[in-house]
Amino acid sequence: MSDDEQHNQTFEQASAGASLTFPMQCSALRKNGHVVIKGRPCKIVEMSTSKTGKHGHAKVHLVGIDIFTNKKLEEICPSTHNMDVPNVSRREYQLVNIEDGFLSLMGQDHTSKDDVKVPEDPLGKEIKDGFDDEKDLLVTVVSAMGEEAVISWKEAPKGS
Predict the structure, then answer these.
(1) Which of 63, 87, 104, 125: disulfide with 46, CB 3.0–4.6 Å?
(2) Which of the residue ranges 16-30, 33-47, 68-82, 135-149 would you say has the lowest mean pLDDT?
(3) Structural contact between residues 34 and 91, judged by C-beta atoms closer than 8 angstroms
(4) Which residues are within 8 A (CB) of 144 and not within 5 positions of it... i.e. 6 or more apart?
C-alpha cells in the first residue's frame, strides 16, 4: 500500500490539454481564416503568393487584423513553412450585470462568467445603454490564446 502513496497527488488546476495554437502550412492558409502574426491572433484579410528566383521558394504575403486590437499586421513566409493558427472560439452569453467595469455573464449551460471587461469603445457604451434600458442582452465573446473580448451584442429574443 505504501508504494501507491507516492502516486497520490492533488492538482490545484487541470485543463483539457488543448493547445492555444496548431501548425498549418502557409500555402494551406486562406483568406478570412486565422493565423498568428508576431505573437497575436489575427484574421487574414489579404493574401498573395509570389514566385521567387531560380532556386527560391514561393513566398506567401499575409495581411491580418488582430482580432482583439484591430491593428493591421503583416508577415511574409515561404509557402512550405508552417505557421501557427490560433484556436478561436465564440460563445454567446446572457448579460446579467455590469459591475466595476466587468460584465457578469451567464452561459447557455447556466455557468457564470465574471472576468470579461466592458469594451472601451462605442460597443461598450451600447452595451451599457442597453443594460440601463433594462433590455435582455446577449453578448458574443471571442477567445483565443488566453485572451477574451466582447465583439458584438444583440437583444435576446422574447420568451427565452
Answers:
(1) 63
(2) 16-30
(3) no
(4) 20, 34, 41, 67, 68, 86, 87, 88, 89
143: Cβ contacts below 8 Å, ≥ 6 apart:
88, 89, 90, 91, 149
| DSSP line for 117-137 | EPPSSHHHHHHHHHHHTT--E
pLDDT at 18 over 80: no
Pick from 157, 68, 80, 78: which is nearest to 120 by CA?
68
Q: In angstroms, rounded to a whole number, what is the distance separating the alpha carbons of residues 56 and 53?
A: 5
Secondary structure (3-state) at 3: helix
Backbone angles phi, psi at 141, to 5 degrees: -110, 125
d(CA 59, CA 42): 19
In angstroms, the CA 127 to CA 101 distance is: 12
| pLDDT tens per residue across span 103-121 | 999 998 888 989 889 988 8
Tell me if 36 sits within 8 A of 21, measured CB to CB: yes
pLDDT in tens, 58-95: 899 999 999 999 999 999 998 899 999 999 999 999 99
Residues 6+ apart with CB under 8 A from 135: 155, 156
